[in-house]
């Protein structure tokens, strides 16, 4: 969700390129298989006690299991796992949103980056990074990352050992498709002044479809939004131009005129979400969902109660939040029915006198959300279920000039 100030800080920090720290990469094929699975893997429950939960993977490779085997209590930030009862919503119909006093759940089913540690934490364990890339995803026999350099955004192509093979001038994001077989990114042509292309490329070796590209407006900085079907992608430019890239006998772009900005695309059903209007006085926008197969100007439904952020893998739901926000992001978290806009579940801050925000949220699978929640000067990742249950899936981190962690393969906006 919106975090432009933090992104700017991160971009400036990434200009100070660090030396290779000698990573310890996992077997790439194994990481790739796990990374592209949307479904999380829950540990089996034995008796009435939930499965033992590993500590968040860190470079020291220590885990809470060693302590618990020896009878020692887990660290203070690692609550003893317990069965979680279905919560009851408050009088306003929402569930409490907080990072404190939560039961500890299974490890996240998606990868994330630890900033200070320069570590990519995958479902299979940690991988040392040359630097804390703003994004990184498996790509062919190595990795594709996004960084900030003297010339702006850079695509960084790395091998399986995290050694940099080459860099190209890039855009404001990289977006993998649902099963991790393709990735959408932007590239500025260094040899042709002003030329910018949007690339839909295979991200695993031997994939049957070749790379596809579309020309974006000359001199533009592109923000890839996502896949809006098997043969369609969505992207925008920093000047507010919005497009679908269509792959057919003659690949071409189609302007999207029903939005001020686009925030999400659904690979499952082709829907696109975005802002349809903005009120300067209120400092908030109205959002809507559009079906480009029916119209590129008229929305299926719209709302001024929520901002829209990411469709679920099966296209049934969309992550949302309050439409008026700044700083770290919206003050709450919601899931809406993608077909109607009706709320399915909503979480609101439980600490009324403490600033609470959701800096980003993604789908862990088709009915479970992972969210990075800021509360006061601390943040951690939580798992939100559609029945209102909330559990912690990482430690709590203090916030300094930059966010201490972020999702690895999602744009931070």
TrEMBL record:
<keyword id="KW-0812">Transmembrane</keyword>
<protein>
    <recommendedName>
        <fullName>WD40 repeat protein</fullName>
    </recommendedName>
</protein>
<feature type="transmembrane region" description="Helical">
    <location>
        <begin position="44"/>
        <end position="64"/>
    </location>
</feature>
<feature type="region of interest" description="Disordered">
    <location>
        <begin position="66"/>
        <end position="94"/>
    </location>
</feature>
<keyword id="KW-1133">Transmembrane helix</keyword>
<keyword id="KW-0472">Membrane</keyword>
